[in-house]
Amino acid sequence: MEKKGIDISHHQGDIDFEKLKGNIDFAMVRTSYGSFYEDRKYKQNIKGLEKINVPYGLYHFSYATDVETAKKEASSFINLIKNYNPTYPVVIDIEYSDRTADVRKDTLVDIANVFCKMVEEAGYYAMIYANLDYFNNKLNSNVLDRYDKWLAQWTSKPTYNKPFGIWQYSSKGSVPGINGNVDLNISYKDYPSIIKGNGATGNTEEPKKEEVKEINYVVKKGDTLTKIANKYNTTYQKLASYNNIKDPNKIYIGQIIKIPGTLTNINPVTYVVKKGDTLSSIANKYGTDWQSLYQKNKDVIGNNPNLIKPGQILKI
Description:
Helix content: 25-40%
CATH superfamily of the largest domain: Glycosidases
Distance between the termini: 29 Å
Structural class: alpha/beta
Strand content: 15-25%
CATH class of the largest domain: Alpha Beta
Shape: globular
Largest sheet: 8 strands, mixed, barrel
Number of strands: 13
CATH topology of the largest domain: TIM Barrel
C-alpha cells in the first residue's frame, strides 16, 4: 500500500485547495518551530485540507539543544494541536540548523525520545523526521527504534536500513494548487486505520471485536519472520508485504509486526493502550482480569496499576 502526499508550511504561500483536491492522498502540515513560533499558515492549511477531506499529520521543527528545551517545545506543540484531529502521525522534525549543529548525538537521541514520549502520552501517534545522514549517524539508537520514521532522502530509491513509514523523496515537486516547489512523500502504511485502531488522537470509542482487523506481535530474541508466520498460519512473504519489510531476514527485537486477522479467529498477543483505557476495561475486553494483566506487564506499567499511558504495549 502506497499513498502519495506532500508536506506544507507558510513557504508554500496561499494554497488553492480546490485545485489540490484529488491530486494527493495525505499532507503533513508544519504547525510550529523552535521555542515557540507558530507557522503563520498552519490554521489556513489545516482548514483547507479538512474542507477537501484530505487526511493530515502535524509536525514541529525542533531547535532544542537539550532535554528541558525539548520538553518545553513538546508541551507548547501539544497545546497548539489539541483542537485538531490528525489521522497521520504527529512529528518532531530534527534536522541541521545553526542552533543545533553542535548538539551531541546522545543528546539528540534524548531530545527525540522525550518529545515522542510526551506526544504519545497526549494520545497521539508519534514519529521522527530526519534525513538519511541524521538517522544513520546521529539518531541511530535502539531507544528510538520503537517510533515510526519519516525519512528525507531525495534519491531514486531509499537506502535506510531500518523500518520507516514515510519517505520524502523530493524537495522540488509540483502539484496543482501550489505555486513553486513542494516536498513529495510516499506513505507505506495506512495510518488512518492504524491510528483509529490504536485509539490515538483522543479517540476513546471502544472498537467492536469484528472491527479489529489486525493484532500486534512484538519481536522477541530468536524470532524470524518465518517462525512468526508459522505461528499464525501464514507466510513470511505475506507478513513482509503487510508490514512493508523490505528485507524479510532483517527484523529486530522490540519491532511490532502487524498480523492480519480478527479477534474472532486469532488471539491477541499485545494491545496498544489508548487514551481513556484502564487495566479493567482492557481486561474485560479480552476476558481476563486486571490483576493478571498487571502481573504480565508490571515491567511496562511500573508500581501503580492505576497508571497506564497511551502508547504502552501490553501483553494480553
